[in-house]
Structure formats: structure tokens, C-alpha cells
Amino acid sequence: MRRRSNQRRRCRKAVHSRLSCLAWFSGSGSRIKFDGRSQPFIGARDALVTQADEMAATPILTPHHTPLIVVAIRCVEAIGETLNHRKKQPSKHRRRCDDSISLMKNLAICHRLGSHLRLLLPLLMVSVMSSSGAAGESASDSAGAWSATGSMQDERWWFTMTTLLNGKVLAAAGYSYETYDLATAELYDSATGTWSRTGSLRNARFSHTATLLLDGRVLVAGGYNGLESMTSAEIYDPSRGRWTRTGSLSIGREEHMATLLQDGKVIVTGGYGDSVGPLTSTEIYDPATGLWTTAGDMNDPRWWGTATTLLDGRVLVTGGVGISGGQSTCELFDPATRTWTYTGRLHTHRIIHTATLLADGRVLVAGGQGDLGQSIGTAEIWDPATGLWTAVGRMQQARARHTAALLPDGRVLVAGGLLNNQVLASAEIFDPLTSAWNRTGQLVTGRDQHATATLPNGTVMVAGGVDRTSEGLGSAELFTP
User: Fold this and answer.
1) Is the pLDDT of residue 30 over 90?
2) pLDDT averaged over the chain?
3) CA–CA separation, 188 and 476 (whole Å)
4) Which CATH code of 3.30.428.10, 3.30.1490.20, 3.20.20.120, 2.120.10.80 fits the domain covering 145-480?
């Protein structure tokens, strides 16, 4: 009995010190209570710390934090089972708890992020409640409105926006009619609704990627500078507001894909190279060394596709432009073996579409363009359990070059984009529980080639792009679900 008691205290202490587990369920603003009335991990309530006084805003997990979800899930599951079933097979649960603590130590995620792991809990709760059917519905699926907020200092498109761990949003580089490729960067402060300049990039670029690292810095890689596909990469440090050069890619690439792996490294896949065309090559960046190493080649070259880190750590790439045009092939990257394997094919060829990791681990692909340049109004979901795609409800509006954002309640917001040659102001929401799309409030300004970011209070921001007259935009607006 004393051994079990000591083990429970050890588990609790580990979680207390390494998770700082506070969560406000962002959809309703109500505090998550770890009891049977709120969610199924009944015993875990004693193992999780609530620190309400420290949080001024609802933490929202952005897609950049996705690889961390599995760590929180495994730890909470292990602790929950240890406490709920401590009278049954204690040695088994003791091993599971030890394994979870060991996993967290080995990944060094807690050491790197500290209290930032509190960001994990809202999406964890979405996942738990969505799978149990206890959440995900709203009073009105079409509810939600857009409102203007402060404009960026520069008009820009083909740029990136990244939600930082401090809640601010970084807009980096891009293209404008006035200066062509941009080296400027700006920070959005949701507390004031204003943008301010931060350090300039070392190299102007557009059609690049930006990835949030585990330590809170941002990696920008590749892109195009008006002359050639770029090999250079650089790091933004929010604590200093400065950009510094880091190791270069082995091959110049633009319109490529990048995603964070669970070990904190970044994989860059495909893209377009000046002298090569569509690329099959992939490279992995190690923040500890600042260097890139080659990984296995994809089976098919592709650019204008998507890359998504799954809950099990693998990476799913979909569609994109290949040697002969748009394609429907999809592939999985296994970080353990650094190899690529085919998985189920999309039902239609897609380029410049979106892919969103749902709370239950499936992946939603929406819209895009087909082989003839026509905008697509269909969507499909990939199930990691089967490796197959299933068509879901038709979108309210065919669109490509739009943005997609996961909402706090597990639904997916898509906004703007292009219907053939028409820039769209419409937006719609996909509900995974009903597989239906529903219209929501229209954008203040129609836009495509824009960027999106989820703010700490659960609202979604879109900014930049081009409007219906092909004029560049510096404006930004917020969607409140």
C-alpha cells in the first residue's frame, strides 16, 4: 500500500512540475474540471494542477504545436489509469506512468517549454470530448462574425503568419507590388489590436515556409527572391526581436511544405527548384546544431501540396503539382526509418488546397484546384486507422488558395480564396460530428493568397493577400466563433 501511495505521489509530482496543467475550454470560456461531469479522466483530477491566476487569456493550440499533443495525451492517460485503477495490476500501471515520464524527459519538451505546455490542454479536452460525443456542437453552426483590426505596415501576400508562444503573431516576408520580395517582419499584439515592426530578415523572400520551434523561435526556410529558388534559412528570436542566419538547405526550393516533428526537428518536403522542377527530396533541420540533413525522397515530386504531422508522429503529404500536373497521390513519412510509403489516394487531384488535423487524429482536406484550373468544392477525410479517404459533405463554395483554421470546439473554419478567377469574401465551417459545411459571416474584405493565425483568445485572424481588383492588402480581420 505504501509503495502504491508513493508511486501516485511520484506521478502527481512529475505532472505538477512538468505540465503545469491549466486549461480553460476555449469554446465556452468555462473552466475545465477534472471530474466525471466534465470529462472521462476521473482520477486525473488529482494529478493536474490548475493555475487560473496565471492565465489572462484562453490558451489555444495552434497547428504549430500539434506534435506535442501526443505527449500530453499519453501522460494524462497514464496518470488517469494509474489513479483510477490503482487496485488492479499496480505494476502494469506503474510501468505506464514511468514510461510516460520517461517519454517526456527524453523529448525534453517540458524542459524547453515549461509552462507553455498549458497550451496543450484545450485541444486535448476537445479531443476527449469529441470522441465521447460530449462536445463539438454549437447553438448555431453558422454563428460567427468578422471584424476589422489593425492593418499591417506593409501590404503583403505569399507570406507566412505564425502564432508565437507569447501570444503575438509574426508576419514574415512575402511579396508586394511596391517592393516586390519583402524582408520586413511585423508583430501583431492582440491586446492592442496593432502591428509593430520587428527585425528584418537577412534575405528578402516569398513562397517560403515558417515553422514554430519548441523553444519558441521561428524557422524560415527557402522561398523565392525574384531571381531563383532559395537555399537560405534563418531564425527569428522573439526574445530579442532579431533574425539570424542558420544552416542552408542542400537545394533551393519554393512552394514547399514544412512541419514540426515530435522530436523538435523540422522536415521540409518537396517544393519547386529552378533547375529541377518539382522536387522529391526532403530535408530535416536540427535546431540543436542549426544544420540540415537529407531524409528519404518521396515517391512522387510535388509542390503546392500539404504536409501534416499526425498524432503518432508520422507526416502525411497530400496532392500538389507533380511532373504532369495535379496529382491525387498521398504519402506517409516515418521519422523512425526516414522512409516514405504510399497511403490511400485522394478522390480527385488537388493543388493549393488545405489540410487540417482534426481533434480525433483524422485529416480534413478541403477545396483546391483541379487539373484544368477549376476551383474544387469537395472535401475528404483521411483516417489513419485505415489509410483511406472518405468524401464528406460538399462545401458551400468551391474555392482554392483559401485558409483553414481549427476552432476551439473542433470545427474547421475556411475563409476567402479564389473561385476560378473570382476572389471570395465568403467563409464556412466544417463540423466533424455531422460532416456538414455551413456558411458563416463574410469577410470584411474578400481576399486570396492571404495567411491565417489563431490567437490566444480563440479568435482567428486573416491578413494580407490580394483583393478583387488584384490590389495588395495590408488589412487584417478577426473571426469570433
Assistant:
1) no
2) 79
3) 10
4) 2.120.10.80
